[in-house]
Design a protein that fits this description.
Length: 118
């Protein structure tokens, strides 16, 4: 009868591999949660900006000054789009609708590439 003494050395290696998988999964979960939190913060600022623009809140009000100040670097770049100053829906311009479209498309991308648990 053959001896299986070599299996005694394999058990610690299998345990180490299992621990590494758990650690990698934990890091991946943390990164995913941090990215989703950042997406939620950025998305809420974009939606708040759209609401403020739609309601006609200027930057003279503190909330308008804060939100418009946060979004001004992006909106200055989007101002180079043709027709960026044109109002399409209420007070919403092409820039505001473009920001909302980016938000919506990014959300669709997250949903489309999400893992499926079978």
């Amino acid at each position: 009868m053959r001896s299986c003494a070599w299996l005694g050395n394999a058990a610690p290696m299998l345990e180490q591999a299992q621990r590494r998988r758990v650690q990698a999964s934990t890091r991946s979960q943390l990164a995913t949660e941090l990215l989703l939190t950042a997406f939620a913060l950025i998305g809420s600022v974009i939606i708040l900006r759209a609401v403020l623009v739609f309601l006609g809140v200027t930057d003279r009000v503190w909330i308008g000054q804060f939100v418009y100040g946060l979004t001004s670097p992006v909106t200055k770049v989007l101002d180079y789009l043709p027709g960026s100053g044109r109002e399409l829906f209420g007070n919403l311009t092409v820039v505001d609708i473009t920001l909302l479209a980016f938000l919506f498309l990014f959300l669709l991308g997250i949903i489309a590439t999400g893992r499926q648990n079978d």
